[in-house]
Amino acid sequence: SGYQEEFYQLSREADTAYKTMKVYEDLGQVAELEQYAESHKGLLQNRPILQNIKKQLNSLYNQSLKIEGDKDLSPIEKRKSIDEINQQRNLILNQVHKMRKSILGKEENE
Fold first, then answer.
1. C-alpha distances in angstroms, 9 versus 2, 15, 24, 64, 91?
2. pLDDT of residue 64
3. Count of CB atoms within 10 A of residue 28's CB?
4. What is the pTM (predicted TM-score) of this model?
5. Model pLDDT for residues 15-28, shown as the tens digit of each residue
6. Residues 50, 10 contacting (CB under 8 angstroms)
């Protein structure tokens, strides 16, 4: 889905921002570090939340794989369970979509 791709893009941007900060830190470039941290504050502050969401999405995906492979469930039971998982996933991704603008802040224009 579009929201799923949007989430993974946001997550990659947050990881990149974090790694870039680490480089500035390792090089001892304090002024650049502070400037970068300020201009990427939303991504950096929300990175732990995005990491947690990624774990939740992976868990939901793994649950759906288990259900698909469960020989004791009927096709109808499988469909019902997978639909519930997809609803949860869509709720999470919808929340991320709503958060996106506040996370990116002014970085969205860069």
1. 11, 10, 23, 23, 18
2. 97
3. 8
4. 0.85
5. 999 999 999 999 99
6. yes
Residue 106 DSSP label: G
Tell me, rounded to whole angstroms, the distance of Cα 95 from its chain centroid. 11
Structure tokens at 103: 């996370």
Q: Counting beta carbons within 10 angstroms of the beta carbon of residue 83, is it exposed (0 to 12), middle (13 to 18) or buried (19 or more)?
A: exposed
pLDDT at 54: 97
Structure tokens at 22: 């680490």
CA distances from 97 to 57, 63, 74 (A): 14, 23, 34
Look at residue 109 and tell me whether its pLDDT is greater than 50.
no
Residue 105 falls in which region: left (phi positive, over 0), alpha (psi -120 to 50) or beta = left
Entry field: residues in the chain:
110
Alpha helices in 1-110 (DSSP H): 2-27, 30-39, 41-69, 75-104
Residue 98 has which token pair? Answer: 């709503």
Nearest alpha-carbon partner for 43 in 87, 65, 84, 12: 12
